[in-house]
Amino acid sequence: EPEVTQTPSHQVTQMGQEVILRCVPISNHLYFYWYRQILGQKVEFLVSFYNNEISEKSEIFDDQFSVERPDGSNFTLKIRSTKLEDSAMYFCASRPPRGSGGTPYEQYFGPGTRLTVT
Amino acid sequence: DAKTTQPTSMDCAEGRAANLPCNHSTISGNEYVYWYRQIHSQGPQYIIHGLKNNETNEMASLIITEDRKSSTLILPHATLRDTAVYYCIVRVANSNSGYALNFGKGTSLLVTP
């Protein structure tokens, strides 16, 4: 069964450094998402992406964050200058195109990247 | 979106049915009820969704009350692997948004041997 993959599984970085988290969505999916979960807290939406542009973003997704689909398979989240409070599990998700069955909120999540900022 | 209320935690014996309730008393006519779960340290997993009618798939059943103010997710024969946090999410089916999922705190289900 196809699945969303994410790399690396764990990233340790120093405060102020840039990090790029990578995701490979399911191949025929066209809608992509990033969520994060700080340890012990709820899963929070960051951004959704469709047709090479952001379709929705939360208040968390400020100028320090950016997303990109650099090629036909990867979807990346960049944090320009990491802060201690960026330490969290970051989940990528994708969903199939409309008309392929399923609903817009039936999203498929990857296993996550644990980001530790020291 | 309508607010949802779920119990913080529940226990269930292995092999028995797990019935997880969710209150969404302010739900509007065009809002669906979605259920996801998150097994420890993994990404959330879609389970099922419904509008008015009861729904069943290979993972679970969803029972929605006639007034749609509450619903129950049923895992008919819970196994240890069903131990997870279960999230009830209410969202409008069609919108101009990016279809973000708004996870609350969910119900932590512990299935015991």
Short description:
The complex is a heterodimer of chains A (118) and B (113). With 118 residues, chain A is mostly beta strands.
How would you explain this protein's 3D organization?
The complex is a heterodimer of chains A (118) and B (113). Chain A has 118 residues and is mostly beta strands. Helices cover 0% and strands 48% of the residues of chain A. Chain A contains no helices and eleven strands. In chain A, the strands form two sheets. In chain A, strands 2, 4, 5, 6, 9, 10 and 11 form a seven-stranded mixed sheet that branches. Chain A has a four-stranded antiparallel sheet with strand order 1-3-8-7, with no helix packed on it. The N and C termini of chain A lie far apart (37 Å). Chain B has no helices and nine strands. Chain B has 113 residues and is mostly beta strands. Chain B is 0% helix and 46% strand. The mean pLDDT of chain B is 93. A five-stranded mixed sheet of chain B has the order 1-9-8-3-4, with no helix packed on it. Chain B has a four-stranded antiparallel sheet with strand order 2-7-6-5, with no helix packed on it. Chain B has strands at 9-13, 18-23, 31-38, 45-50, 55-56, 61-64, 70-75, 84-92, 107-112. The interface between A and B is medium-sized, with 31 and 25 residues.
